[in-house]
Amino acid sequence: MGPGKLLQSTVFRRTLTVVLLLAGVAAAVTGLVGWNANGILTRASEHAVEYDAVELKAELVGRGFDALAQMVADKSRGGGGGVYYLADAGGSFRAGNLTRLPTWVGTPGRGVFTYSRAIEPTARRAAGLLIEIDGHPRLVVGRDIEDQRALLLAIYRSIGLGTGLLLLVGLCGSVLISRHIQSRIDAMSRASAGIMSGDLTGRIPVGTSGDELDRLARQLNEMLGRIEQLMAGLREVSDNIAHDLKTPLNRLRNLAESALADGRGSEAWRSGLEHVIDEADEIIKTFNALLLIARLEAGSTADGFAMLDLSRIAIDVAELYEPVAEEAGFRLACTADPNLAVLGNQQLLGQALANLIDNALKYSTTARGAREISIAARRDGAMACLVVADRGPGIPPENRERALRRFVRLEPSRSLPGTGLGLSLVAAVARLHRGTVTLEDNAPGLRVVIALPLALAGRDVADLGRD
Questions:
Q1: Domain, as residue range, for 293
Q2: Which residues, in sequence order, are bridge partners of residue 87?
């Protein structure tokens, strides 16, 4: 990653900003510590100077100038950082470890002054005050502060070194973090470019850290999988529309041509038109089913949801189809657990159940097994299940997922009337209700299970209207 691209990186800029803020805070905190340390040491020096001054003044008052000179000489030899100078009445040096009056820095007579010692000609600094004797400034009392200044200088150097080190480490860390994240983003960009070029099988690389980028990559891959599935379904729908609608359209055209060629005149034309209308109705039903599935997958019908009793729906649809089943030579049995409350659309759930019963009647007609169809509404944990089972030929396990797609008609059923939209409509209704559709073996036959989440488990459906 070049410098220009690095500076354009949001991660680098944000990380560097945080590092600069931390460095500034660290410098401010350390500076505050140094300032406080300087204040403490300065006050300690001032207190020591004032104590010495009081003691020396008391000696002068109590015992006279000669005793004062002796005390100054003793203190000068005692070490401890004390700095003293005493002049006699003529202004000549009398005692102390300074050979002349010092040069004051700032306010004359109090505060900081410079001086040099005989054993060390380098100028040093001390904090002290100038005391007058008989109206003349003749006594200097102070404390050397060079060690204090050296300590503060070491503190401030440490501040500079630490801040610089923090900035260096932060800068290196910002570069490394930016390059790591940018490499992940570049990998995502390359995968996205491949997908945009038409390779819908491409996926975004997922790392092993489980961080937010990995979570984003997994979600995007799930989205890409769904898009790939939809595109494959769209291609399959297009192929199946061309395949399955070609026959009824050709039959429609042949009926019209036959009616026109019939020599019986208006009677033949009328009969031909009636057949044309029947064929057109079947084509319209196909397109209506496609439109309904599209609306279901878009979720545009979810606004009409209400609290429903799934058991009641199963019983009502079973009663509606019982005469039809008896006429076709089937026995239709229905069992329902009470109070299966779900949130959904009654018309859509009823239509999905009706589609399953229609399929069971259609594909079980030629079966050699028992001519019976069972409908059940039961509770399964936190799910309410609608189950339709028949004794027909069933669907092989390898074809069950494919059978839920639009326009898919397995080879044994292509000779029977239908559009291949029944199970796909059921699957779309289940997805709209946040449920699932499962095709199972009924040994023999097929068992279709629609599982929907219970809305108010354990409550009586009759009480829903009183909430």
A1: 245-297
A2: 93
336 and 214, same structural domain?
no
SS3 label, residue 154: helix
CA distances from 389 to 171, 379, 394, 428 (A): 68, 17, 10, 20
Give the three-state DSSP class for 305.
coil
C-alpha dist (Å) from residue 46 to 13, 18, 79 = 49, 42, 17
Q: Dig out the tokens for 168 from the structure.
A: 């260096």
- Residue carrying the six token digits 């208006």: 266
Taking the C-alpha atoms of residue 198 and residue 228, their distance in angstroms, rounded to an integer, is 11
Distance CA 66, CA 60 (A): 8
Question: What would the two tokens of residue 324 be?
Answer: 């039809």
Pairing of strands 331-336, 372-380: parallel
Q: How many domains does the chain have?
A: 4
Q: Which residues pair with 143 in a beta bridge?
A: 82, 127
Do 62 and 148 share a domain, yes or no?
yes
| Distance of alpha carbon 289 from alpha carbon 286, whole angstroms | 5
pLDDT in tens, 38-54: 788 888 888 888 888 88
| Cα–Cα dist 391/445, whole Å | 4
Number of separate helices (H) and strands (E) present in the chain:
11, 13
Q: Determine how many CB atoms are found less than 10 A away from the CB of residue 4.
A: 7
Helices (H), 299-339: 310-327
Q: Could you give the CA distance from residue 252 to residue 272 in angstroms, rounded to a whole number?
A: 10
CA 249 – CA 239 distance, rounded (Å):
15
| CA angle (350 as vertex; 348, 351 as ends), nearest 5 | 65
Which has the closest alpha carbon to 295: 452, 402, 428? 428
Residues of the chain with pLDDT under 70: 1-9, 11, 79, 105-108, 117-121, 233-234, 236-247, 263, 285-304, 365-370, 405-420, 456-467
Same domain flag for 433 and 462: yes
The closest alpha carbon to 221, from 244, 191, 254, belongs to: 191
pTM > 0.70: no
Q: Strands 82-87, 136-144: parallel, antiparallel or unpaired by DSSP?
A: antiparallel
Under DSSP, the state recorded for 411 is G
Number of other CB atoms surrounding residue 182 within 10 Å: 19
- The answer to whether residue 182 sits within a structural domain is no
